[in-house]
Amino acid sequence: MSEPLRNLIFAILCLLAASVDAGQQREEHLADSVRGALSVAVAGLPPPEPYLPTAADKLAYEQWLQNNLQRLPLRIKQMHGAAGLPELGSPELQRLFLQTVWYESRRAALEPSLVLGLIQVESGFRKFAVSSAGAMGVMQVMPFWPRMLGQGEPAVLFQWQANLRFGCVILRHYLKLEDGNIHMALGRYNGSRGQSAYPNAVLAAQQRWQP
Question: Could you tell me the pTM of the whole model?
Fold first, then answer.
């Protein structure tokens, strides 16, 4: 096989890998108490500074951060080729992104590795990804959520922290609805509840982000 042909095939595979998986959360009726709780959960975006009260917490976070600062550029290159992603094009931006993932994951009592796996499958880490169903941003949040919860226009979902805040809170909400069943919660997140392909893809991706 010639070098140009190999390069062409590689480019096509990168494009396919970067396709949006389309998190099609369905707009459902929410009880007023649930809507109020979710509105509070997504409100306010303080700087994503991890809460690290002990020396052991600080060490664990630094190890997690350094490990994933090595992994993230490799994943981006695998999915998007040498061009990468401008929004994650420097070590400083990658550090801020990972810090925000850690903060919002822990805030919602989720494993950061699960959230990174979901992001990898849903958007390929693209900040401005939009699916054919209209899902937006790195966690592919449907635009009805900001309107439903009184948090402004859907364009807020193109901000890393806002998108991660919504995505993590929504996944935690679905886990509660599904009594902690991660497969069912992930299926509900993606709009494919009861099917195995999407949960299996996310959980497989999660493995790559675990220590």
Answer: 0.84
